[in-house]
Amino acid sequence: MNTARTLRSPVAWWRDPWRPPRILVGVTVIYLVWSLLPVLIAVMFSFNDGRSRTRWEGFSFRWYWGDPVKSVWHDAALHTALLQTLKLGVVTTLITVPLGVLFAIGIDRWRGRLPAGANMLMLISFVVPEVLLAVALLFVVTSLALPIGLGTSAQVIGLVTFQIAYPAVLVRARLATIGRQYEEAAMDLGAAPLDALRRVTLPMLMPAIFASTVLVFADVIDDFVLVRYLSSDAATEPVSVKIYNTARAAPTPALNALATLLLLAALVAIVVGFLVYRRMTRGDAMADRGITRFAGETTAG
Predict the structure, then answer these.
(1) Domains of the chain, with CATH numbers?
(2) What single DSSP character describes residue 48?
(3) Quick one: which of 55, 158, 194, 301 could link to 116 by a disulfide (CB 3.0–4.6 Å)?
C-alpha cells in the first residue's frame, strides 16, 4: 500500500522511468499540427469553388479540370511545369541510381586512402548547402565554354550531382550487410567475377536499389533551389519554380491544385516504395543492421 501511494505521488511519478512521456508527446503533437496545418489548408482551398484562397465558397473540382481556362487540366503553362517536373524526376532517377550503384560497388571493392577520400567527399554532399552547389554550377555553366547551357540539361546534371550520394549510401549499407561470402561462393563454383556480381550480388542489392529509386524520384520532383538557378525560361520551370514565381501575382486556387498533385505524387512514391521495400526485405534480419554497420566502417576508414 505504501509503495502504491508513493508511486502515485507527483514526485514519485516524475522520477518513475516508465512514466508516459507526456511532455514529449505534447511537443510532438504541437509540431505535427504546426507543420501539417498550412499544408492541409492549402490542399483544402484547391477544392474551393471560388477564386479566393482565403474564403471558402463551396466544394468543387473547378481548379483541377472544371474551369475551361485556368484549371490544371486546361492551363498550358501549368501543363508545361508539370511535364517538366516529371521529366526531371524520371531522367535524373534513371541516371543517378545506376551511377550511385556503380559508385557504391567500386568504393566497396577498392581499398586504400583514395577510395576512403572519395567516400568522404560523397558524404560531404549531405552537408553542403544546396544553394552553394546551385550557384557554383550556375557559374560553371554560364562562364565556361561548355556544350550545355541553362535549361533541362543543366538541371539534370545539377540534380544528378546532388542526388548521387543517396543511392551510394543505401547500396553501401546493403553491401555491408550481405558481405562477400555469397559472391565468393559463386566464384568457387566456377562463376566469373562479373557473372557473380550480376547473378548474385545485384539481385541481393535490389531492395536498396529500389529504395534509392523512390527516394531520388521523390526528392527531385520537390527540388527548388537547383532547378530554379539552372532554368533558362518558362519552358524549363518545374512545378516548384512555377509556384514560387506566381505565388505573389494574385494566383487562383489552380496553383493550390498543382501543388496538391505534386504532394500526392511524392506521397504515393514514398508509400509504395516503403511497402515494396518492406515486402522485399521481409524476414531479412540483415536489413535492420545495414546503416549501423556501414556507419561504423565509414568512421573506421
Answers:
(1) 76-279 (1.10.3720.10)
(2) B
(3) 301
35-58 pLDDT, tens per residue?
888 888 888 988 988 888 778 888
What sections of the chain are H helices per DSSP?
2-8, 10-15, 22-45, 76-109, 113-124, 130-143, 152-163, 165-178, 181-188, 193-196, 202-221, 225-229, 239-246, 254-280, 290-300
The answer to whether the Cα torsion of 40, 46, 48, 53 is positive or negative is positive
**Mean pLDDT within 157-162:** 90
Distance from C-alpha of 128 to C-alpha of 159, rounded to nearest angstrom? 14
Please, which residues have CB within 8 angstroms of residue 127's CB and are 6 or more apart in sequence?
Answer: none
- Euclidean distance between the first and the last CA atom of the chain, given in angstroms as a whole number: 57
> Could you report the per-residue pLDDT of 200-259, keeping only the tens digit for each?
888 888 888 888 898 899 889 888 889 999 988 878 889 888 888 887 776 788 888 888
